[in-house]
Inverse folding.
């Protein structure tokens, strides 16, 4: 049992239904008989058999054959009796409105052919009552690693009840409830009586977007946050700047984007950044900004003089610059002020400090750097210089009470890390071994290596992402608990607003289920069926997710 | 010299400027110094230096430093003196309006910062005069293989002149002229004085769309036709039906789509089909429909009883069906009527009859088929049965005065083909050898094998498509002339309206230039620069073409 599950499950379990802590999934007890989706008997229509469209699959689901009907004009999402949240909880109010729209909104345009409610025999479901059990529901807080996302949902006549310890669990439960509701051919909205107990397997479930190789308009980022919520992701890893451009508009150092962005229009203003953070918060998604140094910083040098290392050739500066200059005090003065701003602009407990792919050649060419190496006794081991730099940055950021996330090289090069540093494992080559090493040294790990979604290939590559087992590495139970989750990374070299959505979704959905659902949810044929439905649902909700395979969506055929 | 070039060049050459038949490209005489686009010195902004944004590169371009200015309020696209076309030529009138919009339309929204015309020193270009030289300009005709697409363009003060033998050349020249016009940072529209002589290297330059694996809404098809025109493609190969669905609504056999389409809403009505054909015609694009038989026909069987072969196992029918049943007269009665309709609905000289990937196992299982094989003396060579079927279909279609296009297996299996049959080479394995065989036997060939764009991969795969030389196969000059062109194929297993455009463009643009431009236009760095600009232009014109590599478009930065 990993940390997230233990914690979240426990909090809810004690209060509501201890029995459901058992992670047996009834859903998967029954034998399944679907044909291989790539054989000649494809499932062409992605039709919404209710329980076959849940994604990611909850930890524990029981559905009953009895169907209840929902009348859009009467059905209400409301705060239940005993909830610590009420109409003053903007986060839930917003979610109620949003999920009402997802369930019924698309049908407004089609009022033809709708059978009157009375014509059906099914009893009616009148409300979904949401009960938050913690004393402080968390309405105005930001989600964090230790937030509870667990929830318990019962759908029975005449009202459904969604219980959660905090609002974050309610958000996840609302998503699940909305996935249970389906529309029949006559335009009636139905839900099967059911009971669901659910919580995430991993606490950190991220998507990395890269806004430096290509600028992504604000709208693309917000659309992606919607899609993330549909897939129960809870971390946006915002790789906001890199060599190519610096679109983050700094308050203290406006020249960074004035000169380092592709254009003064292709930037994220403080207002934009606040909007992204709030839009994400309302969906239970943390925003972890990455300001990668000392490598990947060419764009920083344009607006900040004397920050990067001048490269030399034949005893003369070439006019080119390398990584951040680690030997000058001015570098650390700048970083101190810069990360003070970042620490205050981004509310998340973590800042990602990068640290990947530092090219030592420019440092090696620079006589001042060489002199410094000698003085420090680093010999010719430039990894030591890198660690020297990184530790200074870690100290600066720690002084602002922020935790840190870094790429694996920072660990590999033996920097002195704070014990709570999160190490992101990204190198595809033998990542299981790296997970062993990182957790063996007692550090927390996030896995990305098998989930670089920018590497596209022909066919159903979602199966490859889906079939990863993050805890399959040599290590103790204690080590496994240190793997807090993973991230699907969509680097931006070949991605901008034209292709972001269909390239990321539903491929990232495979990662979403792997990180949320029980480790025994691995049947590809079952996943194919649900993913196909889920993709159609995303499409209905305005996410241009690409097709999984041949076929069509039921709503396209209406 | 291939056929297209010889013919088109000759027609125009005799009338206008015989000298330009020389295929020297002055454009490529100058040494080029661009950095490798994948090195650290990427070209980040796709800025529009005029001659660096032409795509596909014309056969002969000379540009002069002198710039002329265009005033959107005054500039006119008009019929020139001596043109056989006039205001009655709807095709050109429509093209004038369209290209005016492409050149100036996007700037209407931004009237700020526009310098008054008088403030610039440049002389003004007042008109583009279009002169069609053939007695019949072709305004109301459909383009065909032998249509002339050659044109000659001179841009000098005070008017530019575009001469073409037929309207098809004028369409290509309008595209080129619109690519020369660029907007500076102050919102002024400028064009360099220049002279261009141009004609296609290959006469058949196609894009295959597959509307069976996924239905493509009409709008997606029309958008794609726009993009094709921007890249001087001239054939839409419409792979309209296949195993998965039959979206073509037949007039004689409406049950084919009633029962064989994904849904009765996911079809192309006769009106839709007419619209596609007309929209394509106005852009100089032929529509070649493919009705692939005897394989790939599962969807046909749903609406047409007794058409497909019943499969057997252990002496009993299994209830499954195989390819079209080649032994019954009713099959040919149906096909006679069906192709009569197709021949009249689609005006193009060619119908694609498919013939690929026929699975013999069902035929082999069927006792009636076995009996027929014996009677015909085919032994156990089912390729002979396939050829028997195909020849019957070829005869039927020939009787309607239509030419035929087939996939390579029809040739490989030694069917008796009409001499003018076009054989499409699609198998990646040793396609050069296949081109040799097909042309060696005297048949016309179209190459697709290296251009299956549904096979995606990471990185700049356009370079792979671009670097293909279609005539690099063992054969005589006469054989080479039989290669009339090629097609970029986007099969639809993983493609629908969500990802069609960014997946196809600008990757297909690489094929577009290979098929249009001179064989010596092969410099990847030069192509990178122009393709990046061209992609931005497509974006400005509403085509969501994906990025070639890191960077941004100048218009996004404004």
């Amino acid at each position: 049992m990993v940390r997230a599950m233990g914690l979240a499950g426990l909090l809810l379990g004690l209060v509501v239904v201890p029995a459901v802590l058992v992670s047996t999934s009834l859903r998967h007890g029954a034998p399944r008989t679907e044909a291989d989706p790539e054989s000649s008997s494809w499932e062409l229509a992605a039709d919404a058999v209710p329980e076959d469209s849940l994604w990611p699959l909850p930890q524990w689901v029981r559905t009953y054959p009895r169907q209840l009907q929902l009348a859009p004009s009467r059905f209400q999402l409301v705060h239940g009796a005993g909830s610590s949240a009420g109409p003053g909880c903007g986060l839930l109010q917003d979610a109620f409105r949003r999920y009402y729209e997802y369930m019924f909104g698309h049908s407004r345009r089609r009022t033809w052919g709708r059978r009157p409610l009375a014509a059906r025999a099914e009893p009616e479901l009148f409300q979904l009552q949401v009960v938050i059990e913690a004393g402080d529901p968390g309405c105005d807080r930001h989600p964090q690693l230790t937030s509870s996302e667990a929830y318990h949902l019962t759908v029975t006549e005449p009202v459904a009840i969604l219980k959660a310890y905090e609002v974050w669990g309610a958000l996840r439960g609302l998503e699940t409830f909305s996935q249970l509701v389906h529309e029949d051919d006559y335009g009636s909205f139905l839900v099967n009586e059911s009971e669901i107990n659910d919580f995430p397997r991993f606490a950190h479930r991220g998507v990395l977007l890269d806004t430096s190789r290509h600028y992504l308009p604000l709208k693309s980022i917000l659309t992606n946050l919607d899609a993330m919520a549909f897939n129960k992701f809870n971390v946006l890893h915002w790789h906001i700047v890199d060599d190519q451009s610096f679109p983050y508009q700094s308050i203290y150092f406006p020249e960074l984007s004035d000169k380092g962005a592709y254009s003064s229009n292709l930037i994220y203003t403080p207002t934009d950044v606040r909007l992204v953070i709030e839009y994400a918060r309302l969906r239970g998604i943390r925003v972890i900004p990455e300001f990668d140094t000392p490598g990947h910083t060419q764009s920083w040098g344009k607006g900040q003089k004397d920050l990067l290392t001048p490269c030399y050739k034949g005893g003369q500066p070439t006019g080119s610059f390398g990584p951040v200059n680690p030997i000058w005090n001015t570098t650390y003065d700048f970083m101190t002020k810069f990360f003070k701003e970042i620490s205050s602009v981004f509310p998340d407990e973590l800042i990602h400090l990068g640290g990947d792919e530092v090219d030592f050649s420019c440092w090696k060419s620079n006589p001042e750097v060489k002199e410094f190496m000698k003085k420090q006794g680093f010999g010719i081991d430039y990894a030591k210089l890198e660690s020297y730099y990184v530790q200074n940055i870690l100290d600066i950021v720690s002084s602002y009470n922020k935790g840190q996330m870094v790429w694996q090289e920072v660990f590999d090069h033996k920097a002195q890390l704070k014990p709570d540093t999160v190490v992101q494992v990204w190198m595809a080559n033998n990542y299981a071994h790296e997970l062993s090493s990182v957790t063996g040294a007692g550090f927390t790990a996030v896995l990305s290596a098998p989930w670089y979604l920018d590497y596209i290939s022909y066919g159903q590559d979602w199966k490859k992402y889906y079939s990863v087992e993050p805890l399959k590495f040599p290590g103790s139970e204690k080590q496994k608990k240190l793997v807090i989750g993973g991230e699907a990374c969509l680097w931006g070299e070949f991605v901008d607003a034209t292709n972001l959505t269909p390239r990321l979704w539903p491929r990232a959905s495979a990662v979403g289920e792997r990180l949320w659902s029980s480790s025994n949810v691995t049947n590809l044929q079952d996943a194919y069926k649900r993913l196909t439905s889920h993709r159609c649902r995303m499409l209905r909700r305005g996410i241009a997710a690409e097709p999984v395979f041949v076929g069509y969506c039921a709503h396209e055929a209406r």
Observations:
- Chain B has a mean pLDDT of 90.
- Chain B has two domains: 50-106+121-198, 204-541.
- The radius of gyration of chain B is 25 Å.
